Amino acid sequence: MSKIHAAITAVHGYVPDYVLTNKELETLVDTNDEWITTRTGIKERRILKGEGLGTSDLAVPAVEALLKKRGITANEIDLIIFCTTTPDRVFPATANILAEKIGAKEAWGFDLQAACSGFLFGLATGSQFIESGKHKKVLVIGGDKMSSITNYKDRATCIIFGDGAGAVLLEPNDEGNGIIDSILKSDGVGVPYLHQKAGGSIRPASHETVDADEHFAYQEGQAVFKFAVTNMADVAAEVMEKNNLQSEDIAWLVPHQANKRIIDATANRTGVSPEKVIINIERYGNTTNGTIPLCLWEWESKFKKGDNLILAAFGGGFTWGSIYLKWAY
Ligand code: UT7
Predict the structure, then answer these.
(1) What pLDDT, in 10s, does the model give residues 59-70?
(2) Does domain 180-326 match CATH 2.70.70.10?
(3) Is the domain covering 5-175 a CATH 3.40.47.10 domain?
(4) Of 2, 16, 110, 283, which sits with the fewest C-beta atoms within 10 Å of its C-beta?
């Protein structure tokens, strides 16, 4: 009997309507379109507006469209893994909130926090339940309402982030397609460079923390950049080497969208030619857990059964990793 792999059998994404352009950011902080474009590749990002809306509300339209596309009901889902850094609440898990909103009554679920690498960690985790035979349908969502932790007075961070979510369905595949291999890493050396200062158990919310802007994402951009640019490129190359893949064997490189310069470095390191590198950073910025599933969603129609895809990410923690998968449809 051939090995069962966990294959992506459907994908969908959602970005909110509001477009925050570089021009509008020029009215908020001391920046300009030329700086943002040349340093990051970002032109605009999407923002979820409206009282009482959170990350689960970005996921609902993505998941509902995915279920419709696959022709299944929410009750057929066994497990929901919600990868997010901006959960609706500290608790309960956004996976539970989403399950209620989409009417998934038979699923269990949990949130997974690995910053920008979360979606890859979620895919690797979800795939284990499929490969073991425990589950038949696992929903992995990557989504963030980054605007909820972005300080629009801090030009070093507010130009990068945007809101969005994507979802994939994992199902068993016995044709040799699906998730073939992954290399995933974490290193707490990254804590000082990218974190949220307050709101957790070491520094709960108080008037003081709010006044000091400590509930926003704090990033030392240059330091993070240095780690990201080498680690994301290296881990993508490592997963290729481990699986005897040459650059010409890769149909698509799907990099986390944090900075166009980091994406270019990963493409160079792996030797994958520019037309095979998926990039939508100019329209959405860095949606943290949302970037990779949004890329898969937007390029879905170009993928062919058996295509070799290399997914790669780097994020806060630090966390980073790469997944090799063969597209299944
Ligand atoms: O998503 C996962 C993890 N995150 C990342 O991977 C992000 C990694 N880091 C980056 O992408 C980049 O470091 C940033 C885009 C955040 C910043 O770009 P940079 O090229 O590293 O800029 P910098 O922080 O070194 O700043 C260069 C200059 C500074 O001015 P001086 O000191 O040279 O006069 C900054 O004050 O650019 C200035 N600057 C800006 N100027 C205009 C910083 N932000 C801005 C801005 N507009 N928004």
Answers:
(1) 999 999 999 999
(2) no
(3) yes
(4) 2
